[in-house]
Amino acid sequence: MPDYDLIIRGGTVVTESDQFRADVGVRGGRIAALAERLDGGAAPGTSVLDATGLLVLPGGVDSHCHIEQLQQGGGADEETFTTGSTAALAGGTTSVVSFSTQFKGGGVLGPLAEYHRRAAAGAMVDYAFHQIITDPTEAVIHDELPQVVAGGVRSLKVFLTYDPLRLDDRQYLAVLSAARRLGCLVTVHCENYDAIAWRSAALLAAGRTAPKYHAWSRPPIVEREATHRAIALAELVDTPIEVFHVSCPEAAEEIARAQARGVRVWGETCPQYFVLGAADMDRPGFEGAKFMCSPAPRDAAAAAGLWQAVRARTLEVVSSDHSGWNYAGPRGKQAAGPDAPFTNIPNGVPGLAARLPLLWSEGVATGRITASDFVRLTAGQPARLFGLHAKGRIAPGADADLVLWDPERRTRLTNALMQHVIDYTPYEGMEVTGWPVATLRRGAVVMRDGVVQAEPGSGRYLAVPPYDMIRPRGVLPDGFDAAAFC
Ligand code: DUC
Ligand code: ZN
Ligand code: ZN
Questions:
Q1: Which atom of ligand 1 is found nearest the CA of 244?
Q2: Does any ligand 1 atom lie closer than 6 A to the CB of residue 321?
Q3: 260 contact partners, CB below 8 Å, separation of at least 6
Q4: Of 282, 287, 305, 283, which Cα lies nearest the Cα of 216?
Q5: Which of 120, 205, 371, 403 is the most exposed place for a label (fewest CB within 10 A)?
Q6: Please, which residues bridge with residue 405 across strands?
Q7: Are 395 and 35 in contact (CB under 8 A)?
């Protein structure tokens, strides 16, 4: 038997701490060796992939993307596991964490079983799930969630805004308590529901209905307040949380303050908050709808504040929050017509394939962050935080999920390059520096020069075992563990 199935020859390996010239030997889908020179390239059964002049990065881990998410009333997102995987692999991402949902009045086990079925049939990336909780009934909390966790889902997602998804504070506390008992992380969408409803009603009454008023309905203060509250209640229960999609420095400051006093809270941001702004929602006609997501994109000053928070390690994950709605067609942004008020336009932007090029271009190529920071933000930290132990790093024993990356290549983004099913990209026409030349998943080349080749269903489910990083820290008001009694 040859020592290696594959040798990746002559590239520069980038880890969270270093960059060094090394060959990478792969055996059985895992990294078997790293060395300045690996012999065995001539052995029968060993193939060689030339990476001269390229960086070798760990495959991206996108820990927040909405793919084939089931929708109320039947059906699912138009981005299927197969099309979403194609976009992911085209952009250098090899693992995702997507969302199984709950519909109010229903349980979680039924939708989760269906979601597993869809992913097993279609995925070409490896995948884990977040479990969205919209209705934390006794049955869900005490009967169903323990089964969900036993099946390898250790991240619960809650929304503090959005009808019909949002939880009030008491319900949020119930989810935090369950997470503490079961050993889960809670991920939180932080915006103040009532403040948004109040401002939206006023904007509609004033005739301000265009897409740009989406941003007016939810200024940074509504995100800051909800972030503060989400953290305070998590501190009350002593449950670790991650604040999703931080869009502004005001929210990042709340996270930084809590981190400084030892609270286990992590922050995520997304490329759209670096490169899009509220001004994009003011494009002519209905075009602004293409840029609508929540929280809303802000402005250049906010983006500068986010970069600072990234450099300070307050924000340690950059995910896509890929949430694709077509611009045209009956189920997309114009579902309620081309003049729909902002309150009736689906939220979300697609970004699976654009995530790594945008972050490299805006972050590494400009000198704001290092290549090792990039690896930590896009692969290492999301893998650690969500318990994906074989992912996100280049080291013997880890899965051979790798990207051969050209750090200099300049590319003008088009929707065709994104390879998702959605009919537009909000990044159309932007020029980026840095591009994935090839993507390997467990040692197999699944994308080369933009051509994705993998079998639907070849992605593997990543069941997450208990892990230390999300253990409560053991600090409770009065030392009383209320979560143990409810
Ligand atoms: N906001 C979310 O929280 N999720 C999906 C899309 C969006 O805009
Ligand atoms: Zn969200
Ligand atoms: Zn989301």
A1: 3
A2: yes
A3: none
A4: 282
A5: 205
A6: 55, 436
A7: no
The CA-based dihedral angle spanning residues 323, 377, 235, 481, taken in that order and rounded to the nearest 10 degrees: 90
Contact in structure between 84 and 67 (CB atoms under 8 Å): yes
Q: Give the torsion sign (CA, 14, 276, 89, 385).
A: positive
Q: Within a 10 A sphere around the Cβ of 225, how many other Cβ atoms?
A: 18
Instruction: Say if residues 31 and 70 touch (Cβ distance below 8 Å).
Output: no
d(CA 116, CA 397): 27
The residue with tokens 């400009």 is 366
pTM, whole model, 2 decimals?
Answer: 0.98
DSSP-derived letter for residue 59 is P
Instruction: Kindly state the tokens that stand for 81.
Output: 């596991």
Residue whose C-alpha is closest to residue 171's, from 486, 411, 444: 486
Spatial separation of the C-alpha atoms in residues 267 and 243, rounded to whole Å: 5
Helix 169-182 / helix 220-237 crossing angle, nearest 10 deg: 50
Kindly report whether the peptide bond that precedes residue 164 is cis, defined as omega within 30 degrees of 0: yes
Please report the atom of ligand 1 found closest to the CA of residue 66. 5
Pick from 325, 343, 347 the residue to mutate for probing ligand 1's pocket: most ligand atoms within 8 Å of its CB.
347
Q: What angle do CA 462, 468, 471 make, to 5 degrees?
A: 110
Tokens read off for 213: 């008023």
- Determine the Cα–Cα distance for residues 188 and 360; give it in Å rounded to an integer: 26
Q: Which regions of the chain are under pLDDT 70? A: none
For 393-434, write each residue's pLDDT tens digit. Answer: 999 999 999 999 999 999 999 999 999 999 999 999 999 999
Per-residue pLDDT tens for 53-92?
Answer: 999 999 999 999 999 999 998 999 999 999 999 999 999 9
- How far is the centre of ligand 2, averaged over its atoms, from the C-alpha of 46 (Å)? 45
